[in-house]
Amino acid sequence: MQLRLLLWTVAALAAAAAALNVADVPCGKQRAATKIVGGSGARPGQFPWLVSLQLDGEPWCGGTLVSQWFVVTAAHCLKNMKADRFSVVAGEHDLTQHEGKEQRLPVQAIALHPEYRVGKFRHDLAVLRLAQPAVWGGRVQPACLPASDQTEAVLNRTATVAGWGWTAEVRDGGQRADRLRTVSVPVMGPLECTDWFAAAGRKNRLHAGQLCAGFKEGGRDGCQGDSGGPLLLPLEGRSTLVGVVSAGIGCGRPGLPGVYTDVSHYMGWIKKMVA
Predict the structure, then answer these.
(1) Which run of H or of E encompasses 5?
(2) Lowest mean pLDDT segment, chosen from 15-19, 57-61, 167-171, 253-257
(3) Which of 216, 238, 242, 272 is most buried by a 10 A CB count?
(4) Under a CB-based contact definition with an 8 Å cutoff, are residues 146 and 229 in contact?
(5) Are 215 and 196 in contact (CB under 8 A)?
(6) Count of CB atoms situated within 10 Å of the CB of 52
(7) 105-111: long-range contacts (C-beta < 8 A, 24 or more apart)?
(8) pLDDT by residue (tens digit) across 105-145?
């Protein structure tokens, strides 16, 4: 009986951990083998769904292509600014060089989650509609999205963050990364994360729709400039956007994990936005 229950539980989790494709080509396929604190340099094309979200032509945040027309990012990167100030650069790797593989795509419209409030980090999610479609190629591909409400399938797994954020806090001599960087961090739910913050003397309380990721000893984390970028897990063998970089206290501090928006919690809204 116990074995049967165990097998049923494993099967249920496997069924829940599904990858959803809203693009017109296969999603989550990395053609390259496989700012970030404590991370390492990514290979060109390793994260072909990652875009540099730019404000007035300058690097600002990250985002994730989920189809030719749509990018998922963090609402706090956009606040109440107008869409015509933003563009995304797909196929980017080194912010200081033009390699001829980049695609600069203007943003046509911004959809902030209706419950997001400026200055807060709950419901920190946005969908961008592009003014022209991304052109698929080796350096530009869509990520998969998770099925709705599959948070349990994500917890206690090691996920990947990527971005051009700061390599450390300014007080520690950090600078924005010119080249794309990546780091792997274990994922936890809002209750465990709240306990970590409490143990560190912080009153931050997380809620449904939020995830945390990081190490007790710190040292590996996203940082300023990584906001809006992806937290990725392989589901059904395909790279899937399970979280969006949202917030944190400093960068890579011991006992203070990074906070991410739980994408599966909001899939009902996302599917309406990309329809």
Answers:
(1) helix 2-16
(2) 167-171
(3) 242
(4) no
(5) no
(6) 26
(7) 105/51, 105/130, 105/131, 105/132, 105/133, 105/134, 106/130, 106/131, 106/132, 107/71, 107/83, 107/131, 108/83, 109/83, 110/78, 110/83, 110/86, 111/273
(8) 999 999 999 999 998 889 999 999 999 999 999 999 999 99
> Is the distance from CB of 88 to CB of 73 less than 8 angstroms?
no
* CA separation for the pair 36, 61 (Å, rounded): 12
Nearest CA among 143, 58, 66, 149 for reference residue 111: 66
Whether residue 34 is predicted with pLDDT greater than 80 in this model: the reply is no
Q: Give the domains, in start order, of the chain with CATH numbers.
A: 48-142 (2.40.10.10), 145-264 (2.40.10.10)
Show Cβ contacts of residue 234 under 8 Å, excluding neighbours closer than 6 positions.
28, 240
d(CA 57, CA 66): 22
Number of Cβ within a 10 Å radius of residue 155: 13
The predicted pLDDT at position 150 comes to 87
- For residue 80, pLDDT over 50 is answered with yes
Q: What is the pLDDT of residues 163-175, one digit of tens each?
A: 997 665 555 555 6
Look-up of token digits 């592009």: 130
pLDDT of residue 218: 53
Catalytic (active-site) positions: 76, 124, 227
pLDDT of residue 8 exceeding 80, the answer is no
Between the alpha carbon of residue 117 and those of residues 87, 95, 112, the distances in Å are 23, 31, 9
Distance of alpha carbon 182 from alpha carbon 162, whole angstroms: 4
Q: Residue 125 is which amino acid?
A: L
- CA atoms of 247 and 267, how far apart (whole Å): 20
Residue 185 · residue 159 · CB < 8 Å: yes
